[in-house]
Amino acid sequence: MSNQDLSFLFKIDSIRARPGAPELLFSNGHYKPPVKPNHYVRTSSTGWYMWTMNGVYQVAEPSAPFPIEYSTSIFYDSIHTNRFLFHPDDCQTVDISAIEQGDAGERWGWQGLCFTHNYPDHCVLDHDGEHDLLCGRGVSYIPHLLPSSYQSLETNERCMLSGKMSLLLALTAFSCPPSYMIHAISYRLNIREGRWDHVYPNWGTGRNVPTSPVIFRTDCLLGSHGRGLVVHIKGNQSLSEWENGYRRPLLM
């Protein structure tokens, strides 16, 4: 199969806790997003887009089912941890509190980003990884896609990255002003060439200009505490092969 066969549909909903929703904390005192679907308010949505190796473009809402369909919810905690929290479903429609009370417990409630270390130099960002840090220092995507707090504490070796497209798109959306997330997905997340691009776009015109790199946490995540995204993905079976790194790492 060709490296050009990667394509999928996506939609990103921007959400926040509804005014008056209970303020929650984990048992360690760290921030916890709401756990009831009616405790969120959607502030905006991108509508549906098609991502391909050759570009990103808007499409009509798909009506036919796809072999792969899933959603991921993600929030950022800038007060306690400077890390992300995710839930492997649409928190606008599922009752996370009921999930936490079931057999899976908090394992499938809100949790930190997790990685599978399939290879010594290649991590997969997925829904059920066993590690909360990368297997190395990362490459071009540190610190702009992932903060440096996710780097390995044991090795400084390079670490390539694959993973759930929902998580990669969400992290990309957090790397820029909210109104320019589609532009960032189009120009920064350069999966075609396997890298995160450090040539930062002029947000107003779409032209690439050689400006200074945006420092991930201090610039783009400033004021992002409590900001959430729900990323919806629809794709063909080959999508999972790319997400799991079976073709090649997505970011090298």
Description of the molecule:
By secondary structure, the chain is an alpha+beta fold. The chain has one domain. It has helices at residues 96-100, 165-173, 181-187, 216-220, 238-243; strands at residues 7-17, 24-25, 31-32, 40-45, 49-52, 55-58, 68-77, 83-87, 111-112, 114-119, 122-126, 160-163, 189-190, 195-196, 228-235. The strands form four sheets. Strands 1, 4, 5, 6, 7, 8, 9 and 15 form an eight-stranded antiparallel sheet that branches. Strands 10-11-12 form a three-stranded mixed sheet. Strands 2-3 form a two-stranded antiparallel ribbon. β7 (68-77) and β8 (83-87) form a beta hairpin. It is globular, with a radius of gyration of 17 Å. It starts with 6 loop residues before the first strand and ends in a 9-residue tail after the last helix.
Q: Note the total helix count.
A: 5
- How many DSSP-defined strands? 15
User: What is the helix fraction of residues, given as a range?
Assistant: 10-25%
Largest sheet: 8 strands, antiparallel
Radius of gyration: 17 Å
* Alpha carbon gap, first and last residue: 20 Å
Shape: globular
Give the oligomeric state. Answer: single chain
Strand content: 25-35%
- Please provide the ordered H/E string of secondary-structure elements: EEEEEEEEHEEEEHHEEHEH
Mean pLDDT across the residues is 87
Structural class: alpha+beta
Would you kindly provide a brief summary of this structure?
The chain has 252 residues and is α+β, with helices and mostly antiparallel strands.
